[in-house]
Design brief:
Distance between the termini: 112 Å
Structural class: mainly alpha
Oligomer: single chain
Number of domains: 1
Largest sheet: none
Helix content: over 70%
Number of strands: 0
Shape: rod-shaped
Strand content: under 5%
Order of helices and strands: HH
Length: 119
């Protein structure tokens, strides 16, 4: 919308400059300067708007990447916790199996000792 307004204003200045040129040439040069200034200002405003838009887009992309990194980090932490829990459970199970085997060996040894004492 601002581009359209700037174009209309620049056109108005340009037509007034051409109309003034037919009557006197000196005032025509002073009227074209404001048209050029208005056009330059409009271009500068457009450049600023584009810069702001780009900055906002980059900021939004950075937010998305940060959230994805956090989510990935959370998943990695959860996987590490799961692996730690599994290792702990495996260690407990191995210990329980070893204790059971030791108890079985002791029971077997006691049974053999009782059998030998009975003969």
């Amino acid at each position: 919308m601002s581009k359209i307004v700037a174009t209309l204003i620049a056109g108005l200045f340009a037509t007034s400059a051409f109309a003034a040129q037919s009557t006197a040439t000196a005032p025509a040069t002073t009227t074209t300067a404001p048209a050029a200034k208005a056009e330059m200002k409009a271009d500068k405003d457009v450049a600023k708007a584009n810069a702001k838009e780009t900055k906002a887009a980059v900021k939004a992309d950075a937010k998305v990447e940060k959230k994805q990194a956090e989510a990935s980090s959370d998943v990695a932490v959860a996987k590490a916790d799961a692996a730690k829990t599994k290792a702990k459970a495996h260690k407990k199970a191995a210990k329980a199996k070893a204790d059971a085997a030791a108890d079985k060996a002791v029971d077997h040894a006691n049974k053999n000792a009782d059998a030998a004492a009975a003969h």
